[in-house]
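User: Hi! Is it possible to get a structure for several chains at once, not just one? Here's what I have:
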Amino acid sequence: MARITASVYTSHVPAIGAALDLGKTGEPYWQKVFAGYEFSKAWMKEHTPDVIFLVYNDHATAFSLEMIPTFAIGCAAEFKPADEGWGPRPVPVVQGHPELAAHIAQSVIQDDFDLTIVNRMDVDHGLTVPLSLMCGQPSVDNFAWPCPVIPFAVNVVQYPVPSGRRCFNLGRAIRKAVESYDAPLKVQVWGTGGMSHQLQGPRAGLINRAFDSAFLDRLIADPEGLSKMPHIDYVREAGSEGIELVMWLIARGAMSDNPPKVAHRFYHVPASNTAVGHLILENA
Amino acid sequence: MALEKPYKDIPGTTIFDADQSRKGYHLNQFCMSLMKAENRARFKADERAYLDEWPMTEEQKQAVLARDLNWCIRLGGNIYFLAKIGATDGKSFQQMAGSMTGMSEEEYRDMMIAGGRSIEGNRYIEEKK
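Assistant: Yes, the chains can be modeled jointly so their relative placement is included. Here is the combined structure:
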């Protein structure tokens, strides 16, 4: 049977992708960000899963306002890096895992989560920046990500977004689906976005270190309690775009009910407009 | 019965909810069209003519021409869509975010390096007065 081995949490700031792609990683400003992922890249090499289930949000790239799915699961064989207005990032095409994705869709929809099934979708920085941070830049002679990825896009652009509670329970349903898959796959679930940031209006630039720190503590030790936090607390305390953090609860809900092992924890302000948070939790 | 919107009392913040999305639909879809290089070129060549192809309100068009992102947001714009205008103009996301705060580009960047805008005094509109 397949099983979930670990979960990874990270911000997905587009400027991080630009810094990587433009060779700015050595600059002092960016060194402070990338230093926090040195451990993670080594960890990833040692713990490469068979599949990554990657929870992220699309930023007006694949989905315009024509259609706004709350939860969209990528069931295709591959997903191209999107052109977000500056040309596509020079990173590998993402290989999907259509069999496991279809299995998860079948199981999770029957558990009352209405997923939208997507068979054609370009993926933006929300998905590719976490891959770059965790896997490094793929070499020219083997230009590929280390394993297949199932993209799972959550609407956090148009309010109301799904509640933390619903996201946490969805994670549990994903766990159940993975554990009923008839092949011995090791699966990681990643939750991305956040932490505190606001990109709009006169309050742009908001950062709330105390909120972020408490969020990380509770995500580790009391995720069920944390999942009850209402939307307004995210928006008021962590900024209008800080609401992306509900996606971390999907990954956390997919973990075992036993306390996880904290393999890595990192926090830094700023990357562009955003507080960068990062955790690696292993199932004990 | 009106729905409760508890986020109306956050200072300097417009939540992009279903009502804002309805108001801003054509404005945001115009922005989305700038994802294509040929559309960016046509827009740059004659902004007014390009905008007139969209069923936007006159005020929305004026807000775009003025590059006033706060005004665009009041009229239903969403920052991830408005960012396509910034990309067309060659602006970074930080420059766009900073432009809405009344700070200079340098002041905004320095504030971020120093840890960002503090939450203290920025939770409720009443606190700002």
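Chain B has a mean pLDDT of 95. Residues 92-129 of chain B form one domain.

User: Great, thank you!
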